[in-house]
Amino acid sequence: MQGNFWPDHIRRLIEQIGMEHPIIQAPMAGGPSTAELVASVSNSGALGFLGVGYLTPEQIDLEIRKVKELTNRPFGVNLFVPEISEAAKPSDKVLNCLQEFSNELGIDPPQMPGPPKYSFEDQLSVIIDHKVPVFSFTFGIPDKALIRDLIERDVFVIGTATCVEEGVLLEEAGCSAIVAQGSEAGGHRGTFGSTEGTPMIGGLALVPQLVDKVEIPVIASGGIMDGRGIAASVALGASTVQMGTAFLCCEEAGVPGPWLDSLLSSKDISTVLTRAFSGKYARGIKNRFIDEMSLLEDEIPNYPLQNSLTRSLRNASKDKGDSDFMSLWAGQGAAMSRKLTAQELVDALVSETYQVLKSIGTNL
Amino acid sequence: MQGNFWPDHIRRLIEQIGMEHPIIQAPMAGGPSTAELVASVSNSGALGFLGVGYLTPEQIDLEIRKVKELTNRPFGVNLFVPEISEAAKPSDKVLNCLQEFSNELGIDPPQMPGPPKYSFEDQLSVIIDHKVPVFSFTFGIPDKALIRDLIERDVFVIGTATCVEEGVLLEEAGCSAIVAQGSEAGGHRGTFGSTEGTPMIGGLALVPQLVDKVEIPVIASGGIMDGRGIAASVALGASTVQMGTAFLCCEEAGVPGPWLDSLLSSKDISTVLTRAFSGKYARGIKNRFIDEMSLLEDEIPNYPLQNSLTRSLRNASKDKGDSDFMSLWAGQGAAMSRKLTAQELVDALVSETYQVLKSIGTNL
Q1: What per-residue confidence (pLDDT) applies to A115?
Q2: Burial group, residue A266, by CB count within 10 angstroms (0-12, 13-18, 19+)
Q3: Which residue from B212, B228, B362 is facing A7, i.e. has the nearest CB?
Q4: What is the spatial distance between Cα B142 and Cα B134, in angstroms, rounded to a whole number?
Q5: Minimal-distance CA residue of chain B relative to A239
Q6: CA dihedral A199, A203, A206, A211 (to 10 degrees)
Q7: Would you put residue A109 in left (φ > 0), alpha (ψ -120 to 50) or beta?
Q8: What are the φ/ψ torsions at residue A21 (nearest 5 degrees)?
């Protein structure tokens, strides 16, 4: 390693959080960010992140315990800010289509979800009880009082923005830092307060504009896969990066075989934005489910209803090891995926960033 | 100035072309890249670029002569590779809509275009006769023999790619370098050979993937507005940058008042992709024409037919100084626009890049 070569503002931030390197492993709910991955990433000097938005308070407690058994380093936990769900019933066309797929997989037809058995506050209180040092949230902003309480407990609180106006709202709400989610990012768009639909702003444009508008640190995310992306983010003014897709192929990640195969295929990988799986836009590798649901695009119910309706299909597809109905989330840098351990990946990223900074500054 | 601080591979390229700084002003056809802008940019040590795709050979000759009167430095000229135009007649809905707008502006209804009076080869021969040192093209690839002939005449030939597969095709065709047009870019998408519609890949993901796949230099473009964007592009592996929107507010550019006002407004600027003006996807600031045509999205005829049909509307809108029917092309970095002369802008960009590289390398 080359010692701590990061610029001063980055040094200050990573010291504050207790990391060695300004690299955050993105919380990837629904499987990939296992306790093993999170702990390995944190042990390597980066920041591991549990994505527990879909879990019950009991499950969250269990995951955090597992991480704590495997590392003494700081790590983060991410939750979804709940959205007002529509009472609307899905259209018959959507239900029929999902039912046909269920028949094909030999599982029960999708059921309308019951009322939630726990609240965001219930989930959060587990995180608070465990004194998790970093908390991030997506899809909105929790109560300001709640954020203030976390800050008073010395939690580092990170919000997610997909445009400048959302970043400004997050700073006003009292966050410690903001993830700038570029259009390159895999998985769900964190959009919550845009007046313009779902903003798809590339990181090269989003990061500097957000840096200019807010005082708190900006975390670049989307399409960053190696030291070049990290060095570029630092040049744009980011204080650290958050990388999801890059960690999907780590040994410790919970990524089913067909998903892994599609990431490591030697072909060019083209990703698409889709509402098919959850009712909310997300980026992933095209498959049969995305293709067939695109014909019903206008009738797909909003998140979280569509997410509930497709859960059994996604799970059955995973169990069968077939990628047809699986959400193969991936960012636009997916073709740069590498199969390494988390430690090897973090080491490579740090060493590459050093080399890039060295080579672009060689004639200064 | 800080002398030539660029990394060696960039130094070699700019020396080859005869530039001082690795900054190319994007060819912006249809007005913005005036001979005055092109010459000022080249005189400042960057590379000015005429966009003459819409002009007759006689007009191209005149523009090149004007540039040559104003500078002895190298500059470039850009053409559109012609596309097989469909014989299709536009739908009555589209024609009626355009006719209503024409009535509103008090101009004749749109006419179906006649057969072209000159060819791509006619346009190109003017450029060859003038021994223009840099030639770029968009929307396709000319004959390989044609590219070979240009290379033999010592012309630096640049193609435009919006995805890795297009970049590979451009290298195979014999180009000297490739513009990687990120999804952030304003104006028309250069897409021509993608198997996946119109790729919208952010620069942070596109540039390094293209750099990995081709041997020739990659020119980053899209969303780059200041030294941070340039330094980031260099970190990603680009050998130079191409910037369009950043030059729109230069005094020497040919940008009508309402367009300029929309770029320099203090509000956040959000851009959209639209086929409304030309039948081909392009990024610009939303206005009434984009809004109203979006209702007929599926019926808008392909480029170049729609482009011909909307020409009189765009021109009349410009003449009236009203932005309703004007194409307000802009990239996703538009809110970072600055009103400077070309010389001031280039000086600022070089000095900012130096500062950014200095500051991110301070602890190496």
Answers
A1: 86
A2: exposed
A3: B362
A4: 15
A5: B360
A6: 150
A7: beta
A8: -125, 145
Whether residues A229 and B208 touch (CB distance < 8 A) is answered with yes
**ipTM entry:** 0.97
| Shortest CA distance from B208: residue in chain A | A228
| pLDDT mean by block of 10 residues, chain B; 364 residues | 85 97 97 97 98 97 98 98 78 94 94 90 98 97 97 98 97 98 98 88 98 98 98 98 98 96 84 96 96 94 93 94 95 96 98 97 93
Say how many residues make up chain A: 364
Distance (Å, whole) CA B17 – CA B37 = 19
Taking CB atoms and an 8 Å cutoff, what residues of chain A touch B203? Answer: 202-204
Its pTM stands at 0.97
- DSSP character string of B181-229: E-TT--EE----S-SSSS----HHHHHHHHHHH-SS-EEEESS--SHHH
Distance from CA of B250 to the nearest CA of A (A): 20
Domains of chain B: 8-82+119-255+336-360 (3.20.20.70), 87-115+270-329 (no CATH)
Residue type for position A70: L
Tokens linked to A114: 């019951």
> How many other β-carbons are positioned within 10 Å of the β-carbon of residue A130?
16
What's the rounded Cα separation, in Å, for the pair A325 and A275? 13
CB within 8 Å: B335 and A209: yes
* Beta-sheet strands, E only, within chain A: 23-25, 48-51, 75-80, 134-138, 156-161, 177-181, 187-188, 218-221, 240-243, 271-274, 282-285
The residue of chain A nearest to residue B183, with distances taken between CA atoms, is A202
Tell me whether residues A360 and B362 touch, CB distance under 8 A.
no
Q: Using only C-alpha atoms, what is the Rg of chain A? A: 20
Cβ contact A269:A244 at 8 Å: no
